[in-house]
Design brief:
The complex is a heterodimer of chains A (about 650) and B (about 250). Chain A has about 650 residues and is α+β, with helices and mostly antiparallel strands. Chain A is built from 17 helices and 19 strands. Chain A has three domains: about 300 residues, FAD/NAD(P)-binding domain; about 140 residues, Flavocytochrome C3, Chain A, domain 1 (Alpha-Beta Complex), CATH 3.90.700.10; about 110 residues, Methane Monooxygenase Hydroxylase, Chain G, domain 1, CATH 1.20.58. In chain B, the strands form two sheets. Chain B has a five-stranded mixed β-sheet with strand order 2-1-5-3-4. Chains A and B meet through helix 3, helix 5, helix 6, helix 11 and helix 12 of A and helix 1, helix 2 and helix 3 of B.
Chain lengths: ~650, ~250
């Protein structure tokens, strides 16, 4: 039975992290050399942690399924990274960033974690600039900032529309520097397929070499998962094709609690789906809402007209109308639901009627073509490539799509999961964004965890391990775990049914989008649970995986990932059904205010739902971590 | 649309490859090039055949994973475009399209269209960074950077490491890739301190990996999906030759 202890340090909020750092146990440099850490995933959270561990002197092994660590999906983050620098003198500070994040998350995150995040945000910018990350600058040579959804200050640092790329290259380069020094060993085209526990502690992983198909054993003193989110459970999402939940799901099945799995972020500005064949959805950065105005026709009969033929007075700039204080810059969950609402009213545009306009005409008139190009050039280009339309001349069409998962492995203040020695950082943990993440906060959290939090907290655990030799990979525990991994792969190969992995993945996605997507009902969720169970049975009966196990076989890779998504999907549904309230990205139709806004229930649901795995086809066990708000008072989130 | 595909198939690095021909009768013009390959692979799986292996991940033109040589050009004929962002509406109904992997000795074929680009990681490890540990560096705004320098550094830094430059070059030269990183970092005050050492070490690693030299044909610049300029190579050569005038300690340190 899991016991949750968040280990939040005593004392006032503003000094918790400082106090913690003063008291945390340290590992001396000569002992660090003897300690090995495995880092799975090389995005912002993984690469920054691996680089920093290496600099500190630990022995590190990194794993990624891509052919190079630099390709992790953090690379695709567009808009920017928040930091409470107050360079713009608009009244920003650590407290405000903390407050905005807590409020943006609809009061479903831990105060202590979020405050620490806001505190270290400033260090991230200093660190990245020192590494040579080319952030946007003013003519005077100082850094430029822009604004993002859900806030009223300009605190977002950016590198054109490629902020994630530039930050990841910074972390990747720092990591490669440690590779050259022999402190980090990188394993590319490798996928972690299970975690190995010895005496209840995480002591290694089983990984598959994706080129040869060989199953490998790797031992360590601690394991850090930085494997990203699970948005691909919906099949269509803005995630990369390979983004998956296998590492965290295997950890969950070995005893790591999974927190708030139903908290999914649907991003309001994505390129709408064009056809059945579509393999993924492409995000158009939220930063576009700084200058773009969102609208649909006032009347449903106008939706088939060309946008240029719809007169100004016949347009409904619905975000500006409904939320005058924040206008087009309301948080993502609010903007996404509003788009769904106007489309449900029959006012959606485009071939499918599931799209709204994002219009830059006013901004181009006000600022000039040149300024818009400089700010969003690559995004406009990307849009034109995909759709064939030129957004300088005609408004973009956008629609919400699955983008980020706030839920993830439950972690304590030290980012340790409920398995000792197993850590989770970045998007794959649940810790900082509550029920909704604000824009430009994912990069901030990934790098905060990797550069500044875990290098400090892991020492507290490893200091007890300085006399522990590296576990033998010939031990019974490694033997047994490897056997289970092989059996599962063999099972996938041997079904020999008729339908491909993609078929099942698509079907799963449809169920999840329909019943566990932007709006949910108890009835729909119950139905969806049955459907997922059925589909899972079908999967294990009728799947066809061509090729062999001992070779490069991307169908087999996908099969393993989708098999895990099938199980995770059910947990998401159970969690969504359990949470009888609407908050952030979780919107239950039964719980809304008379004007259709989310209705939270702080009396009964101000807790983190941490689920314990109880076995296949058994109901998971719910553990509640009560959220105590000592500094902020939860209130109705209003952006009006 | 009806499309005929001639695709390079190779079981393993040591085996001989061949072209397989496939007919696709139902291609939507809105599909991306990779979505067409998804359709092909679904068809092959249904027929009980082995699907075509190809690299891809983000499918939004930024991860640099996709790497198809299409009708004799890396990422196809459209300029400034990765394969995942190339759409079928730019082809004609009835077209025959030839698809090969990157062809360059330092990038051996792993299987079908998948190649090994790990030399790029090793070149970065040889010096493609600013030597700064995580810690408490100076306040970000205490380093002033001219906007034009910052913009130029960004332009060079937007390289996605896909390797199209190498595939396009008759010498399989990696100089566009290497010079982009050198230009990115030496343009900024943060990276200027170790610029000479960086250039020497990265070029040395590049040579060790077996990449060829630059003979200024300019194919790399034409084929680069991110518009990296060949002028970076001239700057890299300048950086490299500067090493002659500095002490060997500064280079080796």
């Amino acid at each position: 039975m899991i016991k949750l202890d968040a280990k939040i340090p005593e004392g006032p909020l503003a000094t918790k992290w400082t106090d913690y750092r003063s008291k945390v146990k340290l590992v001396s440099p000569n002992n660090k050399r003897k300690l090995e850490i495995i880092v799975v995933g090389t995005g912002l959270a993984g690469a920054s942690a691996a680089a920093t561990f290496g600099e500190l002197g630990y022995q590190v092994k990194t794993f990624c399924f891509q052919d190079s660590p630099r390709r992790a999906h953090s690379i695709a983050a567009q808009g920017g990274i928040n930091a409470a620098k107050n360079y713009q003198n608009d009244g920003d500070n650590v407290y405000r960033l903390f407050y905005d994040t807590i409020k943006g998350g609809d009061y479903r995150s831990r105060e202590a974690n979020v405050y620490r995040l806001a505190e270290v945000s400033v260090n991230i910018i200093d660190q990245s600039v020192a590494q040579g990350v080319p952030f946007a600058r003013e003519y005077g040579g100082l850094l430029d900032n822009r604004s993002f959804g859900g806030v009223q200050v300009k605190r977002t640092f950016y590198a054109r529309g490629q902020t994630g790329q530039q930050l990841l290259l910074g972390a990747y380069q720092a990591m490669e520097r440690q590779v050259a020094r022999g402190n980090v060993k990188e394993f590319t085209r490798h996928e972690m397929l299970d975690i190995v526990l010895i005496d209840g502690k995480a002591r290694g992983i089983i990984a598959r070499n994706l080129i040869t198909g060989e199953i490998e054993r790797h031992a360590a003193h601690a394991v850090v998962l930085a494997t990203g989110g699970y948005g691909n459970v919906f099949y269509l999402s803005t995630n990369a094709m390979g983004s998956n939940a296998t590492a965290i799901w295997k950890a969950h099945k070995r005893g790591a609690a999974f927190a708030n799995p139903c908290f999914t972020q649907i991003h309001p500005t994505c390129i709408p789906q064009m056809g059945e064949y579509q393999s993924k959805l492409t995000l158009m950065s939220e930063s576009l809402r700084n200058d773009g105005r969102v609208w649909v026709p006032k009347r449903a009969e106008d939706v088939k007209k060309k946008p240029a033929d719809i007169a100004e007075e016949d347009r409904d700039y619905y975000l500006e109308r409904m939320y005058p204080a924040f206008g087009n810059l309301v948080p993502r969950d609010v903007a996404a639901r509003a788009a769904k609402k106007v489309c449900d009213e029959g006012r959606g545009v485009g071939p499918t009627g599931r799209a709204v306009y994002l219009d830059f005409k006013d901004a181009i008139q006000r600022l000039g073509h040149h300024v818009i190009e400089e700010r969003y050039g690559n995004l406009f280009e990307m849009y034109e490539k995909i759709t064939g339309d030129n957004p300088y001349e005609t408004p973009m069409m956008i629609y919400p799509a699955v983008h980020y998962t706030m839920g993830g492995l439950w972690v304590d203040y030290e980012l340790m999961t409920s398995i000792p020695g197993l850590y989770a950082t970045g998007e794959c943990n649940f810790s900082d964004h509550g029920a909704n993440r604000l824009g430009a906060s994912a990069l901030m959290q990934g790098l905060a965890d990797g550069y500044f939090v875990i290098p400090m907290t892991i020492g507290n655990y490893l200091s007890n391990d300085i006399r522990t030799p590296l576990p033998e990979t010939s031990s019974a525990e490694f033997e047994q775990t490897e056997k289970e991994v092989k059996e599962r792969l063999e099972k996938l190969m041997s079904i020999n049914g008729k339908r491909s992995v993609d078929h099942f993945h698509r079907e799963l996605g449809k169920i999840m989008w329909e019943y566990c997507g932007m709006s949910r009902t108890a009835e729909g969720l119950q139905k969806a649970r049955g459907m997922v169970q059925e589909l899972r049975k079908e999967f294990w009966k009728d799947l066809r995986v061509p090729g062999k196990m001992d070779e490069l076989n991307s169908e087999l890779e996908k099969a393993g990932r989708v098999a895990d998504f099938m199980e995770l999907a059910e947990l998401m549904i159970i969690d969504a059904y359990n949470r009888n309230e609407s908050c952030g990205g979780h919107f239950r139709e039964e719980y809304k205010t008379p004007d259709g806004e989310a209705l939270r229930d702080d009396e009964n649901y101000a807790y983190v739902a941490a689920w314990e795995y109880a076995g296949m086809d058994k109901d998971p066990i719910l553990h509640k971590e009560e959220l105590n708000f000592e500094v902020v008072t939860p209130s109705t989130r209003s952006y009006k | 649309m009806k499309i005929t595909l001639k695709v390079w198939r190779q079981e393993s690095p040591d085996e001989k490859g061949r072209f397989d021909t496939f007919r696709l009768d139902n291609i939507d013009s809105h599909m991306s090039f990779l979505e067409m390959f998804d359709v092909l692979n679904q068809q092959l799986i249904e027929e009980g055949k082995r699907p075509v292996e190809f690299d891809h991940d983000c499918r939004e033109g930024i991860c640099g994973m996709c790497s198809m040589y299409i009708n004799g050009r890396p990422h196809g004929f459209q300029s400034g475009t990765t394969t995942c962002q190339l759409h079928m509406r730019h082809f004609r109904d009835g077209d025959t399209i030839v698809v090969e992997p990157w062809r360059a000795r330092p990038f051996p074929v792993i299987k079908d269209l998948v190649v090994d680009r790990s030399p790029f990681d090793r070149i970065i490890a040889a010096g493609g960074y600013v030597s700064v540990n995580t810690g408490s560096p100076q306040d970000a705004n205490s380093i002033l950077v001219k906007k034009s320098d910052s913009d130029a550094a960004f332009d060079a830094a937007s390289c996605i490491g896909c390797g199209a430059c190498v595939a396009a070059c008759k010498n399989a030269s990696a100089m566009l890739f290497v010079s982009a990183k050198i230009e990115h970092l030496s343009r900024l005050p943060q990276g200027r301190v170790e610029r000479v050492r960086r250039a020497v070490n990265m070029v040395r690693q590049m040579d060790m990996e077996g990449f060829g030299n630059c003979t200024n044909t300019g194919a790399c610049e034409v084929e680069c999906p991110k518009g990296i300029k060949i002028s970076n190579i001239h700057k890299m050569n300048a950086e490299f030759f500067k090493a002659v005038w500095v002490s060997s300690e500064e280079v080796e340190a």
